Amino acid sequence: MSLLLTSYPRQPDRHDELLTETGEPRQHWQALLEMLAMEAPAEMRERAESVRRQVRENGVTYNVYADTKGLQRPWDLDVLPFILPHEEWAGIESAIIQRAQLLNSILLDVYGEQQLLQQEQLPPSLIHGHAGFLRPCHGIRHPDDIALHFYAVDLARSPDGSWWVVADRTQAPSGAGYALENRTVIASVFPDLFRDLNIQRLSGFFNSLRDSLNHWGRECAQRQSALDARIAPLSVGEQPLTVLLTPGPYNETYHEQSYLAGYLGFPLVQGNDLTVRNGVVWLKTLSGLKPVHAILRRLDDDFCDPLELNADSVLGVAGLTDAARRGNVLIANSLGSNLLQSGALLGFLPGLCERLLGQPLQMPSVATWWCGEPLALQSVIANLDTLVIKPAFPQIQERPIFGADLDAEARAALIEKLRQAPQNYIAQEMVNISQAPVWDGHGQQVSARAVGLRVYACATPQGYVVMPGGLTRVATGLDNRVITMQRGGTSKDTWVTAPHSMAYRSLIRHTTSSRDLVRSDAFLSSRMVENLFWFGRYAVRNHHIARLLRTAIHYLLEFSPEHRAVEWPTVQQLCVWYGLMPPDEEDDLGHAIPTTLSDEDIEALLVAAVYDSGANTLASNVQHFFHLAFKLRERLSDDNWRMINQMSQRFGQGHAEPTLSDALEQLDETTLGLVTLAGFTLDGMTRDHGWRFLSIGRRIERLQFLCILLLRALAMPVQANLDWLLELTDSIVTYRARYSAQPEWLPVLDLLLMDENNPNAMVFQLKGLAKYLGQIGATYSSGGEAERISELLTQLRGFDPDATLCQGNIQLINWLNATYQASLQVSNQLNLRFFSYSGR
């Protein structure tokens, strides 16, 4: 064990989570250290690599705005968990419950009777000078007097071992989904230790959150049905509609939001998915408007409503504040809760706790002074070297200033600024927070970093419950004074031991009857369906592009220019149609001037068509596909998402100067991944309308490709080889098994056009389109799309193969052109009817 701790630093001015003052491991860390000491170094390396691989393959991301990796920056997770004994956790849990009750009471009073202001328990300037105090929200009533439904608090341990509150997160707390994902990963790399230490599970907390929001959402549903006769009351077992409101995919924690929405079973919605009519919030779905009963929001207060809160917001829902005032929707947390995140409140909490709860505050906040009080300002100036100066209000966007870092000139400037506007600043004691063990992957030893713990609580009808664990955040680099994920911090899974096995029991019981059974997704938003449609199209489009590029590269490698002259122009035309190669230039009269390219030129173009990030390349199309999947994360299985994420990452790990051989390997891997995804789509997705729109997108994309492919191929010389055509359409195996002969036009066209058993045939696409469009039309009224496709299908089936399936047949060429135009029209009509929501 001593070898593991060779490079472990001891700092006398910090509490050490791992070691006692005498240098002995603390009891609750003993089992982990003993296990590591008995293992070969290679085993721990494998564990650390497993963590990195799972994070990478699962696509767990956190968007640091200044990071060039953007939406694909991997979440940083240390392999070693942060362990807390159940005896210590009991005290933390009790303090967090008390604090949540206290903050909820303050929120109710400030937006209600305001007795705390009248009795001078809180300075009015502290509340009314805060941009987070939303006057339109004054007077809003809350079911069971709960305004703070989901609460997070940042804790740190001082040098004497005491826990302190550093900050309260009351607006739209983030990180709970990351804590859940951390647990999934770390528990899988230490399964025996996780079981032997009897670590408390997290699932019960999330079940309590979901059940409680549904409970209060049911009350809102009753008010809605009383208000609007069009809204039917919920039956006994019918669940209210609770949604998770997100700022969108460019938010730094969007991955976590989508993961959490999928775990809780809540539709993930953006502001434009919702509308307010007659004081009721509605979700825009394929079936029309559906009343929303509860909203778990991850959108900041002032962005939630452009009508009353922030006219510049394009993320919120106009009229949301009015709906909340009327009590027609539960918003968690209540609008205006950002007020409680001000550090200026921390110094007033001990007195408020005695006043409101009749109890002393169990866990103190880090010592904080609001400079708006004259005596506090004098004390802050006198002790500036030991303090951190921070903005008191969110509208003052300044970074913390450490007094110890200032020279004489900067110190004088800061003091002048404090005197000019003292109410805008707070000062906090600078505390050396505790350090915990982290795994040093380079030295294969245990090192140490400063840590902070974010703990979560949710309200239930029976009181607040606390997540048994939380999100441990780790400082990185030399500056251990600031822990923030936006500056590249690391995270840990937080383990809380239990004295015995603990099973989750729901705090809210409900009964589902047979009439409440659900066999379709009634809450498919228009945006979700549009994303599913294009997800299907890009899946097939990427498959076609990959196969086409592979065909082109094989021609380049296997045939000299004179031997590929017959078929190559058609392959090149298809590449031009997809934008993979430049078109021929034109003269002044618009006539094409054939471009003569050397093999080196063609090779460079094909490699660029695979790897370049410009428009229309395979790499860019795969990224479009990834971004669609990112927006659909809560609808995709873990296996499905993992495959897409891996495919996207492969294009980010290409060679500096890729060759044709590298390109072929990339194309093979991409094709394999897309075929696997097609299997997931066929076998793993429920056949609801969302799946039908995805399948319609796939069929339209394949239909258009077949039309263009056959129109180009039919123009080839008579002596052209047709093997490439069958390879490109993935039909070569079937043809050879049936004919055992060189491909000829009649059987090839029969296979690609009229064979109803061939999933790559035209008739197969038309049948599927007619079926799915008909099913959607039966639910939402027909727009004529299914009838047009059925007409084309009838025409195809009526062709005389001997007379029609041959080169130069004008009837076949006209039919292919008509089918291509019909596919464009169907796509446009679907967009107008379902994706461009106008108020059904």
TrEMBL record:
DUF403 domain sequence ranges: 524-835
**Residue ranges of every copy of the Circularly permuted ATP-grasp type domain listed in the record:** 81-475
At the top level, the lineage of the source is: Bacteria
Q: Which SUPFAM superfamilies does this one have?
A: Glutathione synthetase ATP-binding domain-like
Xref: Gene3D superfamilies: 3.30.1490.270, 3.40.50.11290
Q: Which InterPro entries match?
A: ATP-dep_Glu-Cys_Ligase-2 (IPR051680), CP_ATPgrasp_2 (IPR025841), DUF403 (IPR007296)
**What name does UniProt use for this protein?**
Molybdopterin oxidoreductase
Source species = Pseudomethylobacillus aquaticus
